[in-house]
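User: Quick sanity check before I run a bigger batch. Here is a single chain. Can you write out its predicted 3D structure?
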Amino acid sequence: MLPLRPSLKDAIWGGLRLFERYRKGSGERLAESWELSTHADGHSRLPDGRTLQDRLATEPWLAGGSAHRDGTIPILAKLIDARLPLSVQVHPDDDGALRHGGLSGKTECWYILDAEPGAWIYHGLRKSLTRTELEKHAREGTIESVLRKVPVHVGDIFYIPAGTLHALGGGILCFELQQSSNVTYRVFDYGRRDHTGKPRRLHIQEALDVATLTPTPREIPGLDEPIATSGLTRRTIVDCAQFTMEELLFDGEGTIDVPSRRFACLFLIEGRCRAVSRGSHGVETEADELTLVSGQTVFLSSRETVSLHGKGHALLAFPPNGVVAR
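Assistant: Done. Predicted structure follows.
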């Protein structure tokens, strides 16, 4: 088990809930907390100050073949505090990212941790459009009129495949699991200005090149029924080509076994527990023990077996199933 320290990000739409609920930051406005990241724009770090990427580059067995040779991993997990609505935006898929000079597309999913009454998101188009129609709405600032507006509540899950026009509305705190990419094309930003007073940049042409012109299905790939064992209830809430995420409820003692070709990221939504590792990489070692509190994220290595003692609610994220080394 490797406890992780996040990379913290601010934006004009951020708030105070990451500090108030999870003690992230110092009490100033905060937009995002990158909990699990080897991305160049924000590294998660270990208690000794090293980045997770550095550790995985020197000890690749920890990721079980699910990391590149330089220690980067294909997924990124973050917390988002949307005090105000985020811009209407779209992310490319892998092919679109390559066309625009990027390494990876960005499919993502959201787990809603908190939502004010009346909170909403935009999730794709309400109806199919031609590229010309979409461009007209984007350039005239009427894009909201063709987006699907969905109310949100605590515990809701949303799957946002690359190419989907989307936006988090205001008053939402969520956990996001995504491909390791930071490519975002803004199409509409409510006329907001940056800290210099200039309108925030839009990327309409790039967005048109990658946006899906048909409504995005609401179905979530892999969403399954809960499976209860002694002290632990697990439910797969998304399982796609880019990542897998489970929801965990535990009371007493529950055990997690990490597959041999993958690692895992455990985020404690609420509760408190004692986590005890019984070894990894097929080798029994002395027990590695941590006390986890709400808002904490830990990296679980390949083949690691971890027992959770206590009561809590958590999310467990995995990379794609297969070797991605390059």
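The longest strand covers residues 244-257.

User: Great, the batch can go ahead then.
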